[in-house]
Amino acid sequence: MISALRSGYRCLPHRPALALLLGMLWLGGCRQVPLKPEPPIEESAQRTVIDRSQVQQPVQPQPVQPQDAPAPIYAVPPTAGPRTTPSLVPQGSQQAPWISASERPAWLRDCLSSIQLDQPPQIQRTALPDYPKVLIDSNTEGPVVIIFQISETGQLGNYAVRPGAHPALVKASIQALRQWKFSPPTWQGKPVAACLIQAFRYKLQE
């Protein structure tokens, strides 16, 4: 700008007021700086083409269909079947281990033990065996072990003697045992047959 003023002043006459006015006019018309034109706006930039197929349409809310409530599930208890009597394995023969399973008589195999009963037989009357005089004189001693059956009425039934006892002592023991009296054994409230074991010990006093 300073160079332009200096060049302007060179073409003006040397008069102060007139020179100042003409200098100002010279500055306005002597040099004009052209404005830089703006680039033209392309057609593609002026218009924005919207592809409607690419525009996501708003989702319309779907009406909620009423649903039936689920049916309640009821636990049905199982139907009780007919009441059966629990099976019971007789254990009376286990009191006579000297008799093998193959040699056990039927009454012994089917005999209940006292621990299997709800009411074991109770001894209501007893009798002591007589010591045979012949065996006393011969100093014969020893035990007599007998397993016997008590019937549903509490009477003495079948019996078996452990081997090894003197026959006279066995006879005296059986005679005494026949005088015993028992209460009827019961299982689940019903009279049943049961087995007991009894040992008679014969020993001489010194």
Largest sheet: 3 strands, antiparallel
Indicate the mean pLDDT.
76
Secondary structure: helix percent:
10-25%
Radius of gyration: 66 Å
Q: Which stretches are poorly predicted, pLDDT < 50 over at least 5 residues? A: 1-14
Q: Within the largest sheet, what's the order of strands?
A: 3-2-7
Structure description:
This protein has 206 residues and is an alpha+beta fold. It is built from six helices and seven strands, in the order ααααβαββαββββ. The protein has a three-stranded antiparallel beta sheet with strand order 3-2-7, with helices on one face. α1 packs across α2.
Q: What is shown here, in short?
A:
With 206 residues, the protein is α+β, with helices and mostly antiparallel strands.
What distinguishing features does this structure have?
single chain; 206 residues; alpha+beta; 3-stranded antiparallel β-sheet; two-stranded antiparallel sheet; 6 helices; 7 strands; elongated
Describe how the helices and strands are arranged.
Layout: H1 2-10, H2 16-30, H3 43-46, H4 106-109, E1 123-125, H5 133-137, E2 142-150, E3 156-161, H6 167-177, E4 181-182, E5 186-187, E6 190-191, E7 194-202
